[in-house]
Design goal:
Elements (H helix, E strand, L loop, with lengths): L21 H21 L6 H6 L5 H8 L3 H12 L5 H6 L18 H7 L4 H8 L14 H11 L6 H8 L2
Helix pairs in contact: 4-8, 7-8
């Protein structure tokens, strides 16, 4: 019997038969998972307000770039992009600090968006590492992770240890 006629034969065996290749099934599953993830990210019930402001959505390339960093670099850049860091606004939310105002300029709350895009006191440093004195939150996605890391390191606002960073941020 030829191989071409195999499809016409009735299958006999212990397992179910699916008329699709494994590769096609994996591709469809991956696409479905990515679409669901993106829908959750952009959905009205998403609570990641600050992260969504700086990150356009799930991106494998960003994850790959972060994997090339050491642990401290990854923690600092991820914290800065998601808002989970030792900046004062987040520390106030966690109950570790009373004053959310920027340590450098003092007129706005110290958030990731403020530090990365708006703080006038950090404008020269922002220009040196990111190429512009002031940025829009959409511009952050175009920057290299290295530029964000170097800027964060230059600000001296984000400390490797959360306890030390929290103590230093509130005094």
């Amino acid at each position: 019997m030829s191989i071409m006629c195999g499809w016409a034969q009735r299958f006999v065996g212990p397992e179910l038969v699916v008329g699709a290749s494994r590769q096609n099934v994996r591709r469809k599953m991956k696409s479905w998972i990515e679409n669901k993830h993106l829908a959750l990210w952009r959905g009205p019930c998403s609570t990641h307000r600050q992260a969504r402001e700086l990150i356009s959505g799930p991106e494998l390339a960003m994850g790959a770039r972060l994997l090339s960093f050491n642990r401290t670099q990854t923690r600092v850049v991820t914290g800065l992009l998601t808002g989970h860091n030792t900046l004062r606004r987040h520390l106030v939310i966690m109950g570790l600090c009373n004053d959310p105002m920027c340590r450098k300029y003092g007129t706005e709350e110290e958030t990731s968006v403020h530090i990365l895009c708006e703080c006038e006191a950090l404008a020269p440093l922002r220009h040196a590492y990111m190429g512009s004195f002031f940025l829009d939150s959409q511009d952050i996605g175009e920057l290299s992770m290295g530029a964000i890391w170097n800027f964060a390191k230059g600000t001296k606002l984000l400390q490797p240890s959360t306890e030390y960073g929290a103590q230093r941020a509130c005094h």
